[in-house]
Amino acid sequence: MSIEKLPKIKHTSSNNFFLLAGPCAIEGEDMAMRIAERVVRITEDLKIPYVFKGSFKKANRSRIDSFTGIGDEKALKILKKVSDTFNVPTITDIHEVSDAAKAAEYADVLQIPAFLVRQTDLVVAAAETGKFVNLKKGQFMSPEAMKHAVKKVQDSGNSNAWITDRGTMFGYQDMIVDFRGIPTMRTYAPTVLDVTHSLQQPNQSSGVTGGRPDMIETIARAGVVNNIDGLFMETHFDPANAKSDGANMLHLDHLEGLLKNLVAIKKTVNSL
């Protein structure tokens, strides 16, 4: 599996799923370091390959007054500090072609947001950095359509692509995970299940996205049972006051218990 080539990744021989986890956005150095320290300890204990996640900026916001970031370079330097301090790889999203080279100086994995995964120039720019590229499946796309996004990365000379499913639109205010798509997408590239974004409830009348964090374990368990390669979760020690996506984030205090349960399920799946 291509994750073994990722710099600083650990526990790749544990037969566990890998984990992409952290806050939605980098709100400051203290919060990023606090979250990273906790998740690193948990994943070390459970031997889970871990990548710290944090967006250096948020471009897809419902309202013009929504939080978008603390400054690109400042946030990217915090990502680099997390990586250097805890010896873990990092992932961050990019939104414009010019973001690719800039973010690649600091992060190990460049993530293409779901709404932008059909943007050829953006995908190619990410691939040409030589970094791992995580392609989020558009909420409007079939699993089969993701083979074309993967091929864009491969045709740009980069073999390190992942696919992340973050649900499919169902009506106007809900997401549904179609688990039939997992084996399909795994034939194209290692596939990740974005547990927390799959539970978003967008297009709320307030202009602030809602969510169903009470269903996080349900979706995560189903992903592990269905042989997902990796899990993606956004977590925060104070979701209610997080500056982005707090409504669907997992409270940091609940992460260890959840991962212990998921590792136990994975061991059972591996034995079948």
TrEMBL record:
Subcellular location: Cytoplasm
One term of GO molecular function: 3-deoxy-8-phosphooctulonate synthase activity
SUPFAM superfamilies linked: Aldolase (SSF51569)
Catalytic activity: D-arabinose 5-phosphate + phosphoenolpyruvate + H2O = 3-deoxy-alpha-D-manno-2-octulosonate-8-phosphate + phosphate
Record's keyword annotation contains Cytoplasm: yes
Domain of life: Bacteria
Record domain DAHP synthetase I/KDSA: where: 8-268
Transmembrane segments: none
Functional pathway: Bacterial outer membrane biogenesis; lipopolysaccharide biosynthesis; Carbohydrate biosynthesis; 3-deoxy-D-manno-octulosonate biosynthesis; 3-deoxy-D-manno-octulosonate from D-ribulose 5-phosphate: step 2/3
Keyword set includes Cytoplasm: yes
Keywords: Cytoplasm, Transferase
EC number assigned by the record: 2.5.1.55
Family named by the database record: Belongs to the KdsA family.
Name used for this protein in its record: 3-deoxy-8-phosphooctulonate synthase
